[in-house]
Design brief:
It comes from Arenibacter certesii. It is built from 26 helices and three strands. It is an all-alpha fold and 608 residues long. Strands 1-3-2 form a three-stranded mixed beta sheet, covered by helices on one side. The longest helix has 34 residues.
């Protein structure tokens, strides 16, 4: 939010509070008391963020800090216990050491958000083992190489040595990981069978190439390291020494780390079954209900979310039917889906030129949208964005598209990743909506603006609520429609198809984890109700299985943002300004949906 607009809104809130207090005879706190107490809380929140950052070297790197540049994160239960203790101490301080009535409006918001965060973390500690640390979506087997490749910069010899040090840390991290997997198995938390081969293949891919085998081609990590040190001004002896040390680290730490993980996964696969839902966990029903509450920041039940999904699927099917008639397609909607799924005109070629053309077009879409941002936004991010194909070593199991936020110090732009492993899963008619969701005006706008906010504690710049961020991402697919984009009816079909996909997620996620649907039933629901390729359906259902509740955030969040916008439009009439509404939505960073509603209500009142 522009500072002027934000201050006007906060001033309105402060005046309203003052009048209320005066009428009720409550003691009015002086400006000096507010300043002192607010600074005390703000400083505490900043220090608490720093204390957490100190415990996570990889997060330091993501922030552009090189404090523990040669270390990986601690992956032990001891750290989890330490964080739990810290959260309890922080909650105690927040409750007993703060005069809440003497906090400024903005610091009070930060206080409430942080207090809720630590309360949730403390309450959720009992579910700390209710997850799969390695799976086809994420896990050290893919995340650690991706972290080094995309986040670890080598600007000098010291940085190169830190990279080698991190390679040497793989063994400890992965050994801790295997211990964590065993701890979960002891309480009955074991991934379903389909997960194992995907994790094993991703792991084996890292061990292909030199120095792991006799191949002349370097392995993924070796190639990255060599490419980075080649950009340094090194003499031959120093370069040779670094290369030798990197090879040694790969052979004595990285290789045994992956070998241990592969060995354990092969063994555990024999003990796994094909039960797919969170209902199989200890207290599985309570865990899933809690997961939905955390993900959506609402009190919606699994049944309610399921019904919302069914209703939205029916509505969107109706809008797609309008497009089917508009393009004069003869046949049923299922016939139309099959046509969109298979007709060659909608797909780039699988070869290098086809993939390069896809990336080029994605860049063009984002650059075009940049020229129109002033029409709908007041604030815009300083950080730039780039488009990149998902790296080969993880493209087979990664999602079809995702976003990585820019470095806080400006050293790295935001990255929109497009997965071009299977071009049949990336139809051209979905390109617009994907680019708008992951890039602009979607996640790049939301996340870059969030971390560029001024005068808010660091935890708010880098924290998140899935329903807010993914709700904004899905809402960002709709905004361009209202600006005149999606001129091609097939692209508009793509937008609706992606919204339909998110509506189906409400049905299938709750189906699997609450109604005991099988993987196969979930896949069938997607293939019968969407135009997406079967591989899309398989990947999505398998994502539901390993990330219970997460995929419900998109549609629930979008529906709330649209609801609030319509509420503001109806209340303000001609005074409604879409730029101001978007400023209200983005100006506080990520917040729960109920808090967002409070801000929109305050915005409406201030305009009146």
């Amino acid at each position: 939010m522009s500072q002027l607009f934000l201050k006007s809104l906060l001033t309105f809130c402060a005046v309203a509070l003052f009048i209320s207090c005066k009428e009720e005879g409550v003691k009015i706190v002086t400006e000096k008391e507010i300043a002192v107490e607010s600074k005390k809380v703000y400083d505490f929140l900043q220090k608490s963020f720093d204390d957490r950052v100190d415990r996570y070297p990889e997060f330091q790197t993501r922030l552009g800090i090189k404090k523990d540049y040669g270390k990986l994160n601690d992956n032990s239960p001891a750290l989890e216990e330490e964080i739990l203790k810290m959260n309890k101490e922080h909650l105690n301080w927040l409750i007993h050491s703060v005069n809440v009535e003497a906090l400024s409006e903005d610091v009070l918001l930060s206080y409430n958000l942080y207090k809720q965060n630590v309360e949730n973390h403390i309450a959720d500690y009992k579910y700390r083992l209710h997850n799969y640390p390695v799976n086809q979506m994420f896990g050290a087997q893919a995340d650690k190489p991706a972290f080094l490749i995309n986040m670890h910069r080598i600007d000098d010899i010291k940085d190169a040595e830190a990279y080698i040090s991190r390679l040497n840390g793989f063994k400890t991290f992965f050994y801790q990981l295997v211990a964590n997997l065993k701890e979960r198995e002891a309480i009955g938390v074991v991934p379903p069978k389909f997960v194992f081969d995907k994790v094993i293949v991703d792991s084996e891919n890292i061990l292909i190439g030199g120095p792991f085998d006799s191949s002349e081609e370097p392995s993924t990590l070796m190639e990255d390291f060599l490419n980075k040190i080649d950009k340094l001004d090194l003499d031959a002896e120093t370069r040779s020494k670094l290369e030798t040390e990197a090879k040694q680290a790969l052979l004595t730490s990285v290789k045994p780390a992956y070998t241990a993980l592969i060995s354990f996964m092969n063994e555990q696969k024999e003990r796994a079954n094909s039960d797919h839902g969170a209902w199989k966990f200890p207290d599985g029903e309570a865990f899933y209900n809690n997961a939905l509450k955390r993900t959506t920041t609402t009190d919606l039940t699994a049944d309610e979310i399921h019904e919302i999904g069914l209703s939205e699927v029916a509505r969107i099917h109706g809008e797609i039917e309008v497009i089917r008639k508009k393009v004069d397609f003869e046949g049923t909607q299922q016939d139309f889906f099959q046509f969109m799924r298979t007709d060659p005109q909608f797909y780039y070629s699988e070869d290098k030129s086809g993939k390069e053309a896809y990336i080029k077009e994605a860049v063009r879409l984002i650059e075009t949208m940049k020229t129109r941002l002033d029409e709908i936004f007041i604030s815009k991010p300083k950080a730039d964005i780039m488009v990149k194909a998902v790296e080969p070593f993880r493209e087979k199991s990664a999602g079809k598209a995702f976003y990585s936020r820019p470095a806080a110090d400006g050293s790295r732009p935001g990255i929109y990743y497009a997965n071009l492993y299977d071009m049949e899963s990336m139809p051209s008619y979905q390109m617009e909506a994907l680019a708008y969701h992951e890039g602009i005006p979607g996640h790049h706008m939301q996340l870059a603006i969030q971390q560029e906010l001024e005068e808010v504690p660091m935890f708010r710049k880098f924290g998140g609520y899935t329903a807010y961020s993914e709700g904004w991402g899905l809402y960002s697919e709709l905004i361009p429609k209202e600006m005149g984009f999606y001129a091609d009816p097939y692209s508009d079909f793509g937008r609706l198809a992606m919204e339909l996909w998110r509506a189906c997620r409400l049905v299938v996620d709750t189906g699997i984890h609450s109604k005991k649907w099988t993987r196969e039933v979930g896949i069938k629901y997607y293939t019968e109700n969407t135009p997406n390729a079967e591989l899309d359906a398989i990947k999505m259902v398998e994502r539901h299985i390993v990330m219970p509740g997460q995929a419900t955030a998109y549609k629930i969040g979008m529906l709330k943002i649209v609801e609030l916008r319509e509420k503001a439009k109806e209340a303000l009439g001609d005074k409604f300004d879409i730029r101001e509404f978007h400023e209200v939505v983005l100006s506080q960073g990520a917040i729960p949906l109920n808090v967002l509603e409070d801000f929109v209500d305050e915005y409406i009142a201030s305009k009146k």
